[in-house]
From TrEMBL:
Protein known as: 2-C-methyl-D-erythritol 4-phosphate cytidylyltransferase
A Pfam family that the UniProt record links to this protein: IspD
Keywords, comma-separated and alphabetical: Nucleotidyltransferase, Transferase
InterPro entries found in the cross-reference section: IspD/TarI, IspD/TarI_cytidylyltransf_bact, ISPD_synthase_CS, Nucleotide-diphossugar_trans
Organism lineage string: Eukaryota, Sar, Alveolata, Apicomplexa, Aconoidasida
Amino acid sequence: MSKIEEKSTKEIENKDDILNKDNINNKHIYDNNKENDIFNKYNTKQYEKIIKKKNIHSILLCGGIGKRTELIGPKQFLKLNDIPLFIYSFNLFIKCNLIKSLTLVCDKKHFSCIIHSINVYNQLLLKRKMINSFLKNGNDKLNINLKECDQDEKDNIKDFSSQKINLGENHFNDDSNIIDYIHKNTYIIYDNEKNKCILDMQELLNDLSKDIKIRKKKEINEINEKHEKNEIHEKNEKHEKNEKNEKNEKDEKDEKDEKDEKHIIQIKQKHINVNRYKLLKIVESGKERLDSFLNAMKSIDIELDSQMYIYELLKKYIQGKNNKNDNISYEFEDVNINKCNKNYNSNNDSMQNNNIKDKKEEKKKKIHITNILIHDGARPFLSEIDFFNLIYYSTLDKNVILGSKATDTIKLIQHEEENKKKTTSPFIKKTIDRDTIFQAQTPQIFDSKTLHNNILTYILPMKNNEKKIKQTNINIINDNNYPNSEQQHNKQFTDTSSLYQYFNKSKKKKIFVLQSNFPNFKVTTPEDVLHSFFLMKYIYNYKFIDIEESIFKDEYINSHSSYILKKQFNNFFFYDALNEKQKILYHKFYYSSK
């Protein structure tokens, strides 16, 4: 190869890898002065459409048994600042409007405990975030009385402590009801307004009916207000008083008639707010992390329309209910049931159903889930800003993983199998350039179609092809192209990105890296447990959030890249640093309570 050709090849490689390097330094995220063609691909209106269509399914892996942490119980239930460890990540995902559904993977015997933990502790965490202004919008001002907040916090902890969950005893009266519901239904519905899981369809129906009535009443009031404004100048005060009296009498009469008459409430699919109501699935964990991930992937249906699922679930509930004595009658619009019948009838594995379908039929099916996000439940320190950045890149059609660039000197050491004596420590083989090392963390987000189809086609056993698939699995781990034991060891998949890369040979489907701004470590060892206790106590205790900024240089304090600890978990402080598209995403990012 000539020097000119070699130079041009390097230029192309550098150009392709520029997003990778900029992700590590977060240059594009915080530098508004630099225009970049990649981020100006879509205009504002097109970008809003992209956000509207974005439908992310999140997988939260909580199958750890505490083997390496030396804990007496599962580490996902470890209380950090009185809140179970996995709730910190769950809280971020469930309130994000772009995440419509979530799969939580854990030990089967803890299914009911997971639901109780969500119902009890997620609400407490939200209150703490509000107290610390973590959920405050850009220009809002929260006047908080610290003494009152301190007392409220003590009262909250006292109340929630009385509801502590004992993993060793099934002392909850409705444990059997939860397990029964999970077996009968594919998904549990989570209500972001009430901050709890809804297991009673009548409760969901009542809430939906109230919303419909409020919406109708609001529309009628707006029409009446317009009429009143037009007529107010033509009427005298006396006439106006008489009219109000007549109106009050009419309202009283209508209320009496309403009690005697049977109401008809029309429920339409559009009435179901998918930002408020999220679909939650609980799946049994496997022996290893990879097995747990595959169990979750096996249960995902990328054609799932969460709005239609909830609609058809309510419709089925009303059809099976004897409501002759009720004063309310519900009417449902005609919807093509074929689109969603597999979603609500049973808890069958969606992939097995998909394999039987015709290819022609598959082309007609619409893929509703656009992306799949995977996160370790044992990483409770995922910050608001890192999560926001990851989702932002996914809206730009990027596969992204969160992680950190190596700062220590990296050494390649002797493998345990090669160290036959085992009486001495392994020796250093060579020093690796740390500039090329990136330590992968989670969350990791990928396009759903590629991850679901390309990977599962190779891994998941099919009914008529079990032997072939089993052999394929063996070949994946013990690839003939890697006869050396060290190379074989490296072929084991410890994260989703390695799986994605292995099965997707297309150069177009790259995976980009994003530097985390906070120590997003995984609680793995006893030392991690101790560190997490100290760190979490500091973050959520507003008495100690003031850091002496004078220890830093003025250039750092005044820059957008000054990640002071107290700001790490706030989703508002970085607003002024966002570009135009990011600000659009920001305003649509989290669920706002009514």
